[in-house]
Protein backbone atom coordinates (compact mmCIF):
# COMPACT_ATOMS: atom_id res chain seq x y z
CA UNK A 1 0.00 0.00 0.00
CA UNK A 2 2.87 2.36 0.78
CA UNK A 3 4.36 1.93 -2.69
CA UNK A 4 0.99 2.53 -4.34
CA UNK A 5 0.47 5.68 -2.32
CA UNK A 6 4.00 6.88 -3.12
CA UNK A 7 3.44 6.27 -6.82
CA UNK A 8 0.13 8.14 -6.79
CA UNK A 9 1.46 11.13 -4.83
CA UNK A 10 4.68 11.52 -6.81
CA UNK A 11 2.81 11.01 -10.07
CA UNK A 12 0.40 13.79 -9.12
CA UNK A 13 3.33 16.09 -8.27
CA UNK A 14 4.92 15.45 -11.67
CA UNK A 15 1.65 16.00 -13.55
CA UNK A 16 1.06 19.28 -11.71
CA UNK A 17 4.59 20.37 -12.57
CA UNK A 18 4.05 19.57 -16.24
CA UNK A 19 0.86 21.64 -16.30
CA UNK A 20 2.54 24.57 -14.53
CA UNK A 21 5.57 24.39 -16.82
CA UNK A 22 3.31 24.24 -19.88
CA UNK A 23 1.45 27.33 -18.65
CA UNK A 24 4.73 29.20 -18.30
CA UNK A 25 5.89 28.17 -21.76
CA UNK A 26 2.67 29.45 -23.33
CA UNK A 27 3.50 32.94 -22.09
CA UNK A 28 5.83 33.16 -25.07
CA UNK A 29 2.73 34.17 -27.05
CA UNK A 30 2.36 37.23 -24.81
CA UNK A 31 5.73 38.59 -25.91
CA UNK A 32 9.25 38.87 -24.55
CA UNK A 33 8.42 41.11 -21.60
CA UNK A 34 5.75 38.74 -20.29
CA UNK A 35 7.83 35.61 -20.83
CA UNK A 36 11.01 37.03 -19.30
CA UNK A 37 9.01 38.59 -16.49
CA UNK A 38 7.47 35.23 -15.66
CA UNK A 39 10.90 33.55 -15.64
CA UNK A 40 12.34 36.32 -13.45
CA UNK A 41 9.36 36.12 -11.10
CA UNK A 42 10.05 32.44 -10.44
CA UNK A 43 13.55 33.34 -9.28
CA UNK A 44 12.20 35.85 -6.77
CA UNK A 45 9.18 33.86 -5.64
CA UNK A 46 9.09 33.74 -1.84
CA UNK A 47 11.73 36.46 -1.43
CA UNK A 48 12.75 37.72 1.15
CA UNK A 49 11.48 34.78 3.22
CA UNK A 50 13.43 32.57 0.84
CA UNK A 51 16.76 33.56 -0.74
CA UNK A 52 16.80 34.45 -4.42
CA UNK A 53 16.08 31.30 -6.47
CA UNK A 54 15.25 29.55 -3.20
CA UNK A 55 11.82 28.49 -4.45
CA UNK A 56 13.33 27.11 -7.66
CA UNK A 57 15.84 25.02 -5.76
CA UNK A 58 13.16 23.68 -3.43
CA UNK A 59 11.06 22.80 -6.48
CA UNK A 60 14.03 21.08 -8.14
CA UNK A 61 14.74 18.98 -5.05
CA UNK A 62 11.07 18.02 -4.72
CA UNK A 63 10.87 17.12 -8.42
CA UNK A 64 14.07 15.06 -8.40
CA UNK A 65 12.97 13.23 -5.25
CA UNK A 66 9.54 12.62 -6.76
CA UNK A 67 11.04 11.22 -9.96
CA UNK A 68 13.32 8.82 -8.08
CA UNK A 69 10.57 7.62 -5.74
CA UNK A 70 8.11 7.31 -8.61
CA UNK A 71 10.48 5.22 -10.72
CA UNK A 72 11.32 2.97 -7.77
CA UNK A 73 7.64 2.44 -6.89
CA UNK A 74 6.62 1.77 -10.49
CA UNK A 75 9.41 -0.76 -11.08
CA UNK A 76 8.73 -2.68 -7.87
CA UNK A 77 4.95 -2.76 -8.39
CA UNK A 78 5.36 -3.70 -12.05
CA UNK A 79 7.62 -6.63 -11.14
CA UNK A 80 5.21 -7.83 -8.48
CA UNK A 81 2.28 -7.68 -10.88
CA UNK A 82 4.25 -9.50 -13.60
CA UNK A 83 5.15 -12.33 -11.23
CA UNK A 84 1.55 -12.62 -10.05
CA UNK A 85 0.24 -12.95 -13.61
CA UNK A 86 3.14 -14.93 -15.03
CA UNK A 87 1.07 -17.84 -16.24
CA UNK A 88 -2.09 -15.96 -17.23
CA UNK A 89 -3.21 -14.09 -20.35
CA UNK A 90 -0.02 -14.81 -22.27
CA UNK A 91 -1.14 -13.26 -25.58
CA UNK A 92 -2.64 -10.20 -23.94
CA UNK A 93 0.47 -9.67 -21.84
CA UNK A 94 2.70 -9.58 -24.91
CA UNK A 95 0.67 -6.72 -26.36
CA UNK A 96 0.58 -4.85 -23.07
CA UNK A 97 4.27 -5.44 -22.44
CA UNK A 98 5.17 -4.19 -25.90
CA UNK A 99 3.11 -1.01 -25.43
CA UNK A 100 4.52 -0.47 -21.96
CA UNK A 101 8.08 -1.05 -23.17
CA UNK A 102 7.86 1.69 -25.78
CA UNK A 103 5.95 4.21 -23.67
CA UNK A 104 7.50 3.65 -20.25
CA UNK A 105 10.96 2.19 -20.89
CA UNK A 106 12.19 3.48 -24.23
CA UNK A 107 10.06 6.59 -23.98
CA UNK A 108 11.47 7.16 -20.50
CA UNK A 109 15.04 6.98 -21.83
CA UNK A 110 14.22 9.52 -24.56
CA UNK A 111 12.58 11.81 -21.99
CA UNK A 112 15.59 11.54 -19.67
CA UNK A 113 17.99 12.48 -22.47
CA UNK A 114 15.74 15.36 -23.45
CA UNK A 115 15.51 16.70 -19.89
CA UNK A 116 19.31 16.88 -19.72
CA UNK A 117 19.47 18.67 -23.08
CA UNK A 118 16.56 20.94 -22.16
CA UNK A 119 18.23 22.05 -18.94
CA UNK A 120 21.56 22.68 -20.66
CA UNK A 121 19.80 24.57 -23.45
CA UNK A 122 17.09 26.71 -21.89
CA UNK A 123 18.06 26.79 -18.20
CA UNK A 124 21.85 26.66 -17.88
CA UNK A 125 22.44 28.27 -21.31
CA UNK A 126 25.39 25.93 -21.88
CA UNK A 127 24.09 24.66 -25.22
CA UNK A 128 23.01 27.58 -27.37
CA UNK A 129 21.87 26.90 -30.93
CA UNK A 130 21.31 30.35 -32.44
CA UNK A 131 23.43 32.08 -29.81
CA UNK A 132 23.52 32.53 -26.04
CA UNK A 133 21.35 35.09 -24.31
CA UNK A 134 20.47 36.19 -20.79
CA UNK A 135 16.84 36.40 -21.93
CA UNK A 136 14.84 33.15 -21.61
CA UNK A 137 12.62 34.38 -24.44
CA UNK A 138 15.58 34.92 -26.76
CA UNK A 139 17.06 31.53 -25.85
CA UNK A 140 13.79 29.86 -26.81
CA UNK A 141 13.40 31.84 -30.04
CA UNK A 142 17.06 31.41 -31.03
CA UNK A 143 17.03 27.69 -30.36
CA UNK A 144 14.02 26.77 -32.49
CA UNK A 145 14.80 28.69 -35.65
CA UNK A 146 14.13 26.75 -38.89
CA UNK A 147 17.84 26.09 -39.47
CA UNK A 148 17.91 24.20 -36.17
CA UNK A 149 15.15 21.85 -37.28
CA UNK A 150 16.89 18.93 -35.59
CA UNK A 151 16.49 20.63 -32.20
CA UNK A 152 12.78 21.11 -32.87
CA UNK A 153 12.47 17.52 -34.09
CA UNK A 154 14.14 16.21 -30.93
CA UNK A 155 11.82 18.38 -28.82
CA UNK A 156 8.73 17.17 -30.70
CA UNK A 157 9.74 13.51 -30.34
CA UNK A 158 10.40 13.91 -26.61
CA UNK A 159 7.13 15.74 -25.97
CA UNK A 160 5.16 13.07 -27.84
CA UNK A 161 6.94 10.48 -25.69
CA UNK A 162 5.85 12.47 -22.62
CA UNK A 163 2.27 12.35 -23.87
CA UNK A 164 2.31 8.56 -24.33
CA UNK A 165 4.13 8.20 -21.02
CA UNK A 166 1.52 10.33 -19.27
CA UNK A 167 -1.44 8.53 -20.82
CA UNK A 168 -0.10 5.09 -20.00
CA UNK A 169 1.09 6.23 -16.57
CA UNK A 170 -2.37 7.49 -15.57
CA UNK A 171 -3.98 4.26 -16.76
CA UNK A 172 -1.40 2.08 -15.00
CA UNK A 173 -1.69 4.09 -11.79
CA UNK A 174 -5.46 3.64 -11.77
CA UNK A 175 -5.02 -0.09 -12.39
CA UNK A 176 -2.43 -0.38 -9.63
CA UNK A 177 -4.64 1.50 -7.20
CA UNK A 178 -7.55 -0.74 -8.18
CA UNK A 179 -9.92 2.04 -9.26
CA UNK A 180 -10.21 1.25 -12.99
CA UNK A 181 -13.22 -1.01 -12.62
CA UNK A 182 -15.04 -2.00 -15.79
CA UNK A 183 -17.70 0.65 -15.24
CA UNK A 184 -15.08 3.39 -14.91
CA UNK A 185 -12.63 2.42 -17.61
CA UNK A 186 -14.22 4.60 -20.29
CA UNK A 187 -14.08 7.72 -18.13
CA UNK A 188 -10.55 7.01 -16.89
CA UNK A 189 -9.32 6.45 -20.44
CA UNK A 190 -10.99 9.68 -21.60
CA UNK A 191 -9.36 11.67 -18.79
CA UNK A 192 -5.96 10.08 -19.45
CA UNK A 193 -6.13 10.76 -23.19
CA UNK A 194 -7.45 14.31 -22.71
CA UNK A 195 -4.76 15.23 -20.18
CA UNK A 196 -2.03 13.70 -22.34
CA UNK A 197 -3.26 15.63 -25.39
CA UNK A 198 -3.48 18.93 -23.50
CA UNK A 199 0.05 18.60 -22.16
CA UNK A 200 1.47 17.42 -25.49
CA UNK A 201 -0.15 20.18 -27.54
CA UNK A 202 0.63 22.81 -24.92
CA UNK A 203 4.33 21.96 -24.97
CA UNK A 204 4.51 21.69 -28.76
CA UNK A 205 2.92 25.05 -29.54
CA UNK A 206 5.82 27.37 -28.50
CA UNK A 207 8.70 25.69 -30.39
CA UNK A 208 6.59 25.02 -33.47
CA UNK A 209 5.34 28.61 -33.46
CA UNK A 210 8.96 29.80 -33.46
CA UNK A 211 10.01 27.35 -36.18
CA UNK A 212 7.15 28.42 -38.45
CA UNK A 213 7.66 32.13 -37.85
CA UNK A 214 4.60 32.81 -35.71
CA UNK A 215 6.78 33.94 -32.79
CA UNK A 216 9.97 35.90 -33.30
Structure at a glance:
The protein has 216 residues and is mainly α. It is 77% helix and 0% strand.
Give the helices and strands as they follow along the chain. Answer: HHHHHHH
Average pLDDT metric = 86
| Share in helix | over 70%
Strand pairing plus helix content: what structural class?
A: mainly alpha
Rg? 19 Å
Main location: membrane
Keywords: Heme, Iron, Membrane, Metal-binding, Transmembrane, Transmembrane helix
Pfam family, one: Sdh_cyt
Subcellular location: Membrane
Outline the structure in words.
- Pfam families: Sdh_cyt (PF01127).
- It comes from Nocardiopsis lambiniae.
- This is Succinate dehydrogenase cytochrome b subunit.
- Its main location: membrane.
- Keywords: Heme, Iron, Membrane, Metal-binding, Transmembrane, Transmembrane helix.
- The chain is mainly α.
- The protein has seven helices and no strands.
- It has helices at 2-26, 32-44, 54-84, 90-123, 136-143, 149-177, 185-211.
- The chain is globular, with a radius of gyration of 19 Å.
Can you give keywords for this protein?
mainly alpha; 7 helices; 77% helix; 0% strand
Task: Give a topology summary.
Elements: H1 2-26, H2 32-44, H3 54-84, H4 90-123, H5 136-143, H6 149-177, H7 185-211
Helix pairs in contact: 1-3, 1-6, 1-7, 4-6, 6-7
Subcellular location: Membrane
Pfam family, one: Sdh_cyt
Main location: membrane
Amino acid sequence: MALKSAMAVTGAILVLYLIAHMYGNLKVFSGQAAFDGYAHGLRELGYPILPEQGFLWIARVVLLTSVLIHIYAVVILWRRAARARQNRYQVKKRVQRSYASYTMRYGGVLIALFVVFHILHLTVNAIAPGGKSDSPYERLVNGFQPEFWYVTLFYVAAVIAVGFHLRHGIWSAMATLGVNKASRQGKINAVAVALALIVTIGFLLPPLAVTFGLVS
